[in-house]
């Protein structure tokens, strides 16, 4: 199987057939898709200006979508390097039991579903790299009560998500599954109550 970088080279290669270039961009999302495959594809298409079902998009638009994806991937890979170094130091210092951020990180290793969007059409509008920077910043500070990506205050607990974990606090503004470690216990409880009110 081709890796992310070789797929990215095919997207950029003007000698490749346009259908292969589009296919290679889609395949990149099997290696790195912060919102999940379908939502990340929808996001890239809308930001680059071509339709998700467009079979012959402008090659420059494909490359623009790839540029955004690569920038976000670089942000996430840098975070993973820092994360691995921190865990190594903690283990050396005798801290063997991982914390809640570590548990969350284990589920998102490689960057798939980092900011999961269960509805492919509802996702943040900002560039992927900016979304990941905001999310990483939230993981590195004290928990808060709002969405770390858009600052939205309306979080609702959703069950049956097509992701692991299959339930959690979802921002009703930008659509991401908010990582539990970035929220206070009170914010998590409020999100659970919002779910109960919605289903009542």
Description:
- This protein is mainly alpha-helical and 200 residues long.
- 50% of the residues lie in helices and 4% in strands.
- It has a two-stranded antiparallel ribbon with strand order 1-2.
- Helix 1 (4-12) runs antiparallel to helix 2 (18-28), helix 2 packs parallel to helix 4 and helix 4 (59-92) runs parallel beside helix 6.
- The longest helix has 34 residues, at 59-92.
Helical run tally: 7
Strand content: under 5%
Radius of gyration: 18 Å
Order of helices and strands: HHHHHHEEH
Query: How can the largest sheet be summarized?
Result: 2 strands, antiparallel
Structural class: mainly alpha
User: How would you describe the shape?
Assistant: globular
Helix content: 40-55%
- The counted number of beta strands is 2
Write out the strand line-up for the largest beta sheet, numbering strands in chain order: 1-2
Report how far the terminal alpha carbons are from each other. Answer: 48 Å
Poorly predicted ranges: none
Mean pLDDT: 91
